[in-house]
Specification:
Layout lengths: L6 H17 L5 H20 L10 H17 L7 H18 L6 H5 L14 H11 L4 H10 L3 H6 L5 E2 L4 E5 L6 E5 L2 H14 L13 H15 L7 H13 L4 H8 L3 H23 L2
Antiparallel strand pairs: 1-2, 2-3
Amino acid sequence: MSVAPGIQESEDLFLKYLKRRYSLGEIASSTLHLYSRSSETFFSRMLELGVKSLSDISSEILDEYLIWRKSTAETKGQSGRGIATDIVVLRAIFDNAVEEGTIQKSPLHLHFKPETEPEGAEPFSPEDLAALETQSFFAHRLEFLLFRWTGLRCSDVEQITWGAWDHEAKTLHWQTKKRKTWVTIPLTKAVNEELNQYKNLANPKPEDRMLPKSTRASLYKIVKDLGKSAGVKNAHPHQFRDSFAVDILSRGGTIYDVAKVLGITVHTAERHYTPFTEKLQEKVRNLLEK
């Protein structure tokens, strides 16, 4: 293109790209919604800053934008997964623009190098998990169990039904909302029996949701409130997923096991959790050398 498209036109092109990927089945509706909402925030902010086109955006402008996103999210109590999700959406915006030929290179590649880019893996410490566990006995025990011992995303915890649970096999069998991947999650005996107690009290149908009154927003608030009561700062649901993955690795599981249980690719599991595998190996090595 001889003239770089404006910010509004770039937003329209990106939304068309997302809808095309959705229609081809490459992304789920939840991803479409998340990316659309995040990109709307980004493009609106660029207009407010007087940025005329994507080609005018520097790494410094991206720094300012991410700082602004973090501060506004914290003010609204919506810190969520931090800036990692924003960076993922920004990468999609700029990579698509490069493919379309509207810009030559992504400012993200100049500033956020792959080896240092935050991936969003933020497991709780063992001490924080213990504190959250203790607090869950006072309130929201079922919500805690589903987050702590399944590795499910918030969208799945919100929607999971009693029919997904097999008491005899001690598993949850569920198709994830984001990737539409079937996962079979093994449960410990203690968690399996606790779920059995909840089911006996509620006497639900297989199609009934385990948390019928919950929404993603209410689940985020529950985790935040649990964290506040337990003295755990900035607790959010996805940390349980990361903690579950690290638990698998620390107990002798492999990256393949993590990928299979979480319903993600081995590549994604390696990218997110290999650093924790290396830390565990180094810890064991230090113990052996004492």
